[in-house]
């Protein structure tokens, strides 16, 4: 993590969840766990990053601008 030494933490972890307000980070984790364990929607979502090649093939360059070529 960039500037990780500046993040105050007493306990190590595998994933850093940063939030402006600690409760908001906790709410985000709780909601994500609920969705992963109770809702069928995540099973329909493509794996992370799998949309990138299709998006590039479609001509998307980024920053909200379609490829003009």
Automatic annotation (TrEMBL):
GO terms for molecular function: D-glutamate cyclase activity. It comes from the Eukaryota. Pfam families: GLUCM-like_C (PF14336). Residues 1-43 form the D-glutamate cyclase-like C-terminal domain. GO terms for biological process: glutamate metabolic process. This is D-glutamate cyclase, mitochondrial-like. The lineage of its organism: Eukaryota, Metazoa, Chordata, Craniata, Vertebrata.
């Amino acid at each position: 993590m960039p500037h990780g030494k500046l993040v105050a933490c007493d306990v190590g972890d595998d994933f850093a969840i940063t939030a402006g307000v600690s409760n908001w980070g906790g709410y985000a984790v709780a909601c994500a766990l609920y969705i992963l364990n109770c809702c069928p929607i995540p099973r329909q979502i493509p794996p992370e990053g799998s949309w990138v090649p299709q998006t590039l093939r479609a001509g998307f360059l980024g920053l909200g601008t379609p490829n003009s070529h």
